[in-house]
TrEMBL record, chain A:
Organism: Methylobacterium oxalidis
Superkingdom to which the source organism belongs: Bacteria
Family annotation (InterPro entries): CoA-bd, CoA_lig_alpha, NAD(P)-bd_dom_sf, SUCC_ACL_C, Succinyl-CoA_synth-like
Organism ancestry: Bacteria, Pseudomonadati, Pseudomonadota, Alphaproteobacteria, Hyphomicrobiales
Protein's recorded name: Succinate--CoA ligase [ADP-forming] subunit alpha
Cellular component aspect of the GO annotation: succinate-CoA ligase complex (ADP-forming)
CoA-binding domain residues: 3-99
NCBIfam families for this protein: PRK05678.1
Biological processes, Gene Ontology terms: tricarboxylic acid cycle
Active site: H248
UniProtKB/TrEMBL annotation, chain B:
Family annotation (InterPro entries): ATP-grasp, ATP-grasp_succ-CoA_synth-type, ATP_grasp_subdomain_1, Succ-CoA_synthase_bsu_CS, SUCC_ACL_C, Succ_CoA_ligase-like_bsu, Succinyl-CoA_synth-like
Organism of this sequence: Methylobacterium oxalidis
Protein encoded by which gene: sucC_2
Cofactor(s) named in the record: Mg(2+)
Protein name: Succinate--CoA ligase [ADP-forming] subunit beta
GO molecular function: ATP binding; metal ion binding; succinate-CoA ligase (ADP-forming) activity
Length: 303, 375
């Protein structure tokens, strides 16, 4: 599960902390089905009207949940994620930035063994306007998010927010915002998110926001080439100086991938319109929806 | 963070049981002269965290104490790839029979540790992958199985290793073990050499530690090579801000890496040049006052774009920091705001009342105005 729907029950790990409390309140106000929280030191108490458990495993026994979202510092993130995975969470949203890479690898390994969907690390979360949000996005802000039919994928929370705001102002609502995270080893890739939106019945078109580095946009482009829903993209980092290279062995893994030019070429070859600035996205989206690659698939923006 | 060769060998490889040549680390030509007595003929190697030493003349042979002094003096005066050479490593002169390549890194594609081994050592691994792919073996490690000598033996099976065949699997397994213990992002031994006397030794080592793991690798992290950076970049680092100084004239203050990069892109799209990258994402959003000082201290800045889009970060908190710092610093450069998202109404009010500036509705318009003002 990548797209959040209100029937999904959410556990908040680290709910009683400052950020955990602040965002749990926002999530609840937005309609998110938050059912319980975790804090080993406050097990048995109630916080924001919800039960608090010592572990995700105990929470699953007392108040079953589908999603877990982590407000947990880097050093404790591995154990918290493994707890949620072993408890049987379907989806774990990892907001934490700067988790040691070997801990991230251990999390992905455990998730693969349990069939758990990991979103992040270092994501701002998932928003489904009308249903709620999971994470640290302003999902409750109606100037930014409005229900609609365009799915948005972004590594960055701040840039994703700006793009959704531009869409809302142009009268284009969103079916989902999928923040996949800025870390190098994330559980849900751009391509995974694109496939989820392709299957999602509420989504009629996709805005895919990428960044320089890695090969995710190229992989997503390969999938987009076979999609009938229109895809519009923006790639951040065109004017960035070349980043710090990891060394020879790093370069071999990424090969020729990673540059702005390479990503744009791959996307355009797949029939994806690429915007030069975020402000162009609503226009490209309108023209893509007006003239889809397969004319028989033409759909109005608002059904 | 990166490490000098001698630190990687002495602090990581040797304790892991991976053979390294006999060596002495020297900071002066005189030290090199007296160290020569321990070796006889030796190699004098510049200690800089870059792979371009050999081609730059940073690795040379010495056959007498006098020559060791002379060569060390020449190398200690060099700057290689932007790094001033501050010390040299005197290493026993080994007669090399074969050169191999070994590395462990965190592979983003498989989300696993990746073991790389090649029979073509001593050259760039990209080049090997290109010209002799059959000489390169890759093995993404399954954490349940780990990477023992048996796995290593399977990885190199079918490759002609000559007399090194006995030692290499154990070395690869040890390299994998230590890479996890020290939270290495990359540990690369190139070349891993078979010597004429039959020993297999790590002749060079490139080590990159995972920055995010520094908190639990404090001893090793303290021995990292300093990153080359400008005075302002160092100041940023000390304040916990990721600041990169560029050669443009439009200063950038934005929250989050994605939005900051995009602001730079739009500056460039409008025909301007960004003066910096500065991320105040995550918890750093409360540091906008320190961030503004950094951006304005860059002498190239002729105008400033402040682009906030609050998700996690609260734009009112960021705007308050900027307004406070602006009043204190009284800069003369023109500033152009675009503010949206969490805390937007209060942030716009703060900027309007505090600075008498009206934020732009679209970031593209704020950027366009800043680019024009910088001309």
């Amino acid at each position: 599960m990548i797209v959040y729907r209100q029937h999904a029950r959410v556990l908040v790990q680290g709910m009683t902390g400052k950020q955990g409390s602040f965002w749990t309140e926002k999530m609840l106000a937005c309609g998110t089905n938050v059912v319980a929280g975790v804090n080993p030191k406050r097990a048995g108490e109630r916080h924001l009207g919800l039960p608090v458990y010592a572990t995700a495993r105990e929470a699953m026994a007392g108040t079953p949940f589908d999603w877990a979202v982590m407000f947990i510092p880097p050093a404790a993130a591995r154990d918290a994620a493994l707890d949620a995975i072993e408890a049987g969470a379907r989806t774990v949203v990892i907001l934490t930035e700067h988790i040691p890479a070997r801990d991230v690898i251990a999390i992905h390994h455990a998730a693969a063994g349990h069939g758990t969907r990991i979103i992040g690390p270092n994501t701002a979360g998932i928003v489904t306007p009308g249903d709620g949000f999971v994470g640290i996005m302003p999902g409750h802000n109606g100037n930014i998010f409005q229900p609609g039919e365009v799915g948005v994928i972004s590594r960055s929370g701040s840039l994703g927010t700006l793009i959704c705001l531009n869409l809302t102002r142009a009268g284009i609502g969103q079916s989902a915002f999928l923040g996949i995270g800025g870390d190098p080893m994330i559980g849900t890739t751009t391509r995974d998110a694109l496939e989820a939106l392709d299957r999602d019945e509420a989504t009629r078109a996709v805005v895919m926001v990428g960044e320089i580095g890695g090969a995710m946009e190229e992989e997503a482009a390969a999938y987009a080439a076979g999609m009938s829903k229109p895809v519009v993209s923006f790639i951040a980092g065109r004017a960035s100086p070349p980043g710090k290279k990891m060394g020879h062995a790093g370069a071999i893994v990424s090969g020729a991938f990673g540059s702005y030019a390479g990503k744009r070429r791959a996307l355009e070859a797949a029939g994806v319109a690429v915007a030069d600035t975020p402000g162009e996205i609503p226009h490209l989206l309108r023209s893509a929806l007006g003239a889809p690659r397969d004319a028989a698939q033409a759909v109005p923006l608002h059904a | 963070m990166n490490f000098l060769e001698h630190v990687a060998k002495a602090r990581v490889l040797a304790p892991a049981g991976i053979p390294v040549p006999r060596a002495v680390h020297c900071r002066t030509p005189e030290e090199a002269g007296s160290a020569f007595a321990e070796f006889g003929p030796c190699m004098v190697k510049a200690q800089v965290p870059t792979g371009k030493r050999g081609k730059a003349g940073g690795i040379r042979a010495a056959r007498s104490p006098e020559e060791a002094v002379e060569v060390a003096r020449a190398i200690l005066g060099m700057t290689i790839d932007g790094h001033a050479v501050e010390s040299v490593l005197l290493e026993e002169r080994a007669e090399i029979a074969r050169e191999f390549y070994a590395a462990i890194l965190n592979d983003t594609a498989s989300r696993r540790p990746l073991v790389l081994f090649s029979t073509e050592g001593g050259m760039d691994i990209e080049e090997v992958a290109e010209s002799r792919p059959e000489a390169l073996r890759r093995h993404p490690v399954d954490l349940d199985r780990g990477f023992t000598e048996a796995e290593a033996r399977a990885l190199v099976s079918g490759l002609d290793l000559g007399p090194a065949a006995e030692a290499i699997p154990g070395i690869l397994a040890a390299l994998y073990r230590i890479s996890g213990q020290v939270d290495a992002e990359l540990i690369e031994v190139n070349p891993l050499a078979l010597l004429a006397d039959g020993r297999v030794v790590a002749l060079d080592c490139k080590l990159t530690l995972d920055d995010s793991a520094a908190f639990r690798q404090a001893d090793l992290a303290a021995a990292a090579a300093p990153e080359p950076m400008t005075a302002l970049e160092r100041e940023g680092l000390e304040q916990g801000l990721k600041f990169i100084q560029l050669d443009g004239n439009v200063g950038v203050l934005a929250n989050g890496a994605g939005l900051t990069m995009t602001t730079m892109d739009v500056i460039s799209h409008c025909g301007g040049r960004p003066a910096n990258f500065l991320e105040i994402g995550g918890e750093a959003y409360t540091k906008s006052e320190a961030a503004l000082r950094l951006v304005l201290a860059n002498p190239g800045v002729k105008s400033l774009v402040v682009n906030f889009c609050g998700a996690f970060a609260r734009t009112d908190v960021m705007a308050e920091g900027v307004v406070t710092a602006w009043k204190r610093l009284s800069p003369t450069v023109p500033v152009f705001f675009s503010i949206h998202g969490t805390g937007e109404d209060e942030a716009v009010r703060l900027v309007r009342d505090g600075l008498g500036v009206e934020p732009y509705d679209m970031m593209e318009d704020a950027v366009q105005a800043a680019v024009e003002a910088a001309r």
